[in-house]
Design brief:
heterotrimer, A mainly alpha, B mainly alpha, C alpha/beta, B: mainly alpha, MetI-like fold, globular, C: alpha/beta, 4-stranded antiparallel sheet
């Protein structure tokens, strides 16, 4: 009978591949969390059929169509729409300004690990390398773990209403996110060109400029553009807490039950996001 | 004789884009009235210092801690169920958003679709994508308002809002993953006479699932932050308590709640990273 | 088994892969296809296993015109043809047992197929197929952890499970070392002979083709150049087939000088070939 001789010793019918207990543990914990959460979140699909629910749905749909397209309304909405764009641009700009230095400080391969620091003393590495690194990481963590609207609230208290606190809120929260992602990109860069440059006698700045930046730049730009797109949505939302832009208008219209206005505003938001999406896709394609 | 490469034409283009961005930036600066000098000037810093002083020390009384804990648990629950609902919505919708499963690619070479069937499927694809776009462009908070209007206050509309919005986001991402799957194993499975469903099961899903899990976990991180916010419009969780604390000028209680948010966001981020390393 | 008349295949970008192929293959025959790279051999395999449709010409499989088959009939026809690809085309993230049992997908119901992913339905069947190809211990390993040669054997095991009437192989031994290549080709020949299967193999190596197959078809530029028994394939014909393809011409020269990479292992099976 045709047969290819086996190379390995007779380990004929091996036991089923399940060795770890992780899958069972995970399923149990997961199921328990879901059951608990269903109660804690008061999930109750029956509510759709109680009382006024269906009537409200009908009211909403009837009220939303046709969307409010009078020239007067559109003219009034121009300013907030532009403001939303402006907030997103400034917010992202500040986020980049914060994210770059913090991100650089939070990159272990730049601060204290790896080939660039081999000739430093242990104490030197700790004080000048690790401590700033740890601080930068902590700051970034605080910045990005506190949601934008909380920042917005606090900044509204500090600098008053209007678009300015929205800009600061996005700047800080997104600065934290950008910084963390920048540091991850920098850490995952291929280290061999860096070692080569270092061995050829390049200074730290030279290694960064000629080795790190060219490798990291495309991904950095791509992620920053993606964040800008998120920022448009965020700026729209921050309006709900008084930080200007479309969000404020949406909240007003919702509160006054003018659903047709809400629909128009959502359409405007949709167009804005699509435009930014399109622009960033073109830029990313060109870079690749 | 080797020809020398011509100069990169993208130089001029990059200049245009750069100039465009600079203009955009300047216009935005003026429009938003960003006054960094004022912020960091003496008066600005004083105001900030006063405000920060009001936040500390955080209110650690038993009542506040209990409220913060309950709010955190509720927010966690909203984010978990909301994300699961999103996956449940995204999975079937992503199949509609994948051209290579509907009408294009290697699965349709051997027996191409009749023109009527193909038009129907292209239409299906267009509708699927359009629906996903609507779901994901409407911000979670607007969805929350809509659902509060429909089913009343509490955490449930928050769950629905997150589920519907994230369902749109994940549906689009899942569709992209499905389209980028390696077609060679699919061709081989088709050659054994397997039907499209079996090819999906044995060829497409094993390739796509790890990426699905990764995206879903990443969106959970986004959702925990969003869940905390939806309370502003009455959709439960910490957001609601924060709104109350701010309105009543209870700054120290606000600080406690902020700490609670920080704790739970960090927890979910850690869980997500851990699960991603184990499952993907 | 197969009747091809005037088969042409033109791809969407305008490239002509096959330019008028007419061929008849009877049941139980063993045929080797040789020719330079880009000659259209792979396209021919994808046509024969009913993945692609011809742009012109007729393809008759088992007495039925393939273009007239319904969806269900097409799938049934495909279950009777097993294909081994050059790049294995296995699903890396699945365990070997699932990739091997995928040969059953033409027979299993949708429910059985799904259930088998959770718990393999006939692990014994997979195990004995793997034993025949020499890697029984890899039953539950993840497929992308195996070497290229091992993955190729998994692909063969899948075809064993599928148990088709026709076995097609597209350069199955090109990325495998010479001793294993001979063993794999012998295995394919013996299995097909034992069970009266038709075997059609694309081969990069002229030596293997001429030593192991009773019928050799030379393809170049999408056309059949010759269709002969190996002893009738002269040096001139081979030179003409590979003209202009430098690497293959050099390999040919080495072959004709007697420098055979397969050494003495290239001996034909009793009853087949010279």
């Amino acid at each position: 009978m045709a047969r290819i001789p086996s190379a390995a010793p007779a380990d004929r019918f091996p036991a089923s591949g399940r060795r770890s207990r992780f899958p069972y543990l995970f399923t149990a914990v997961f199921a328990a969390s879901v059951l608990y959460s269903l109660r804690a979140a008061q999930v109750d699909p029956r509510r759709f059929f109680e009382g006024d629910a269906l009537a409200n749905v009908a009211r909403f749909v009837r009220g939303a169509l046709p969307p409010e397209l009078s020239r007067e309304f559109l003219g009034l909405m121009l300013r907030p729409a532009l403001e939303t764009v402006q907030i997103s641009v400034m917010g992202t700009a500040i986020a980049v300004l914060l994210g770059i230095p913090l991100g650089l400080l939070a990159t272990s391969s730049l601060m204290w690990r790896g080939v660039l620091h081999e000739r430093w003393s242990r104490a030197g590495r700790f004080l000048l390398g690790f401590v700033p690194y740890a601080l930068a990481r902590a700051v970034l963590s605080v910045f990005r773990s506190i949601p934008e609207y909380v920042w917005a609230f606090m900044f509204v208290r500090a600098v008053g209403l209007g678009p300015f606190p929205g800009v600061l809120a996005i700047g800080v929260a997104y600065g934290g996110m950008l910084g963390k992602v920048y540091s991850e990109i920098l850490e995952n860069v291929n280290p061999r060109p860096l070692e080569t440059l270092h061995a050829a006698g390049a200074s730290r700045l030279g290694v960064v400029l000629y080795g790190l930046v060219p490798q990291a730049l495309p991904t950095v730009v791509a992620y920053t553009l993606y964040r800008w797109e998120c920022a448009i949505r965020a700026s729209a939302i921050l309006g709900f807490v008084g930080a200007g832009g479309l969000g404020q208008q949406i909240e007003l219209s919702m509160r006054m039950f003018q659903f047709n206005e809400v629909l128009t505003l959502l359409a405007v938001l949709f167009v804005l996001v699509a435009a930014v999406d399109f622009a960033s896709a073109r830029i990313r394609a060109r870079l690749a | 004789m080797a020809r020398l490469p011509t100069a990169r034409p993208s130089r001029a283009w990059a200049l245009w884009v750069g100039a465009g961005f600079a203009a955009l930036l300047l216009w935005s600066w003026r429009g938003t009235g960003v006054d960094l000098a004022g912020l960091f000037g003496p008066e600005g810093l004083r105001q900030i210092a006063i405000y920060v002083g009001k936040l500390f020390p955080p209110d650690l009384s038993a009542a506040t801690l209990r409220a913060a804990g309950a709010g955190a648990a509720e927010t966690f629950a909203i984010s978990l169920i909301g994300s699961l609902l999103a996956v449940a919505i995204a999975l079937p919708m992503s199949l509609l958003a994948t051209r290579t499963l509907l009408y294009r690619g290697i699965l349709f070479e051997g027996r191409p679709l009749a023109p009527a069937a193909k038009t129907l499927r292209v239409g299906l694809y267009a509708c699927g994508k359009a629906l996903l776009n609507v779901l994901r462009t409407i911000p979670e908070i607007v969805w929350a308002l809509i659902f509060v209007f429909m089913v009343g206050l509490g955490p449930f509309p928050g769950v629905l809002a997150l589920g519907v919005h994230t369902g749109g986001v994940l549906g689009k991402l899942f569709g992209e993953v499905l389209e980028d799957v390696d077609p060679a194993p699919l061709e081989a499975l088709q050659a054994t006479g397997a039907s499209r469903f079996r090819i999906l099961l044995y060829g497409v899903l094993p390739q796509a699932l790890p990426q699905f899990v990764s995206y879903a976990l990443y969106r959970w991180e986004v959702n925990i932050r969003a869940a905390a916010m939806l309370g502003f419009v009455g959709a439960g969780g910490l957001g609601q308590r924060i709104y109350v604390a701010i309105s009543l000028f209870h700054e120290q209680e606000l600080m406690t709640l902020i700490l609670a948010i920080y704790a739970i966001v960090t927890l979910v981020d850690a869980l997500s990273a851990y699960l991603r390393s184990r499952l993907v | 088994m197969y009747e091809l008349s005037g088969i042409r295949k033109v791809f969407a970008d305008g490239s002509v892969a096959l330019d008028g192929i007419s061929l008849t293959v009877g049941g139980g025959e063993h045929v080797a296809f040789i020719g330079p790279s880009g000659a259209g051999k792979t396209t021919l395999v994808r046509l024969l296993n009913l993945t692609l449709r011809p742009t012109a010409g007729t393809l008759v499989f088992e007495g039925q015109d393939v273009s007239a088959l319904s969806d269900a009939a097409l799938r049934r026809a495909r279950t009777r043809i097993g294909t081994i690809y050059q790049q294995q085309n296995l699903v890396g993230r699945l365990r070997v047992v699932h990739n091997v049992l995928a040969g059953n997908l033409g027979r299993w119901s949708a429910l059985e197929a799904a259930a088998s992913l959770v718990r393999p339905r006939s692990a014994g069947q997979a195990a004995s197929a793997l034993e025949q190809v020499g890697i029984p211990e890899k039953l539950y390993a993840r497929t992308d952890e195996l070497s290229g040669g091992q993955q190729q054997r998994v692909a063969i095991a899948r075809v064993l499970v599928q148990d088709p009437d026709v076995i097609l192989a597209d350069e199955p031994v090109s990325s495998v070392d010479p001793s294993l290549a001979v063993t794999i080709v012998s295995l394919l020949r013996e299995l097909s002979h034992e069970r009266r299967k038709t075997l059609l193999v694309n081969l990069h190596s002229v030596e293997l083709a001429l030593h192991y197959f009773p019928r050799v078809v030379g393809i170049r530029d999408g056309r059949v150049r010759f269709d002969l028994a190996p002893e009738k394939v002269s040096g001139e014909r081979l030179a003409e087939l590979y003209a202009g393809h430098r690497d293959e011409e050099q390999a040919l020269e080495r072959f004709q000088d007697g420098k055979n990479p397969f050494g003495g292992a290239c001996r034909p099976l009793p009853g087949f070939g010279a």
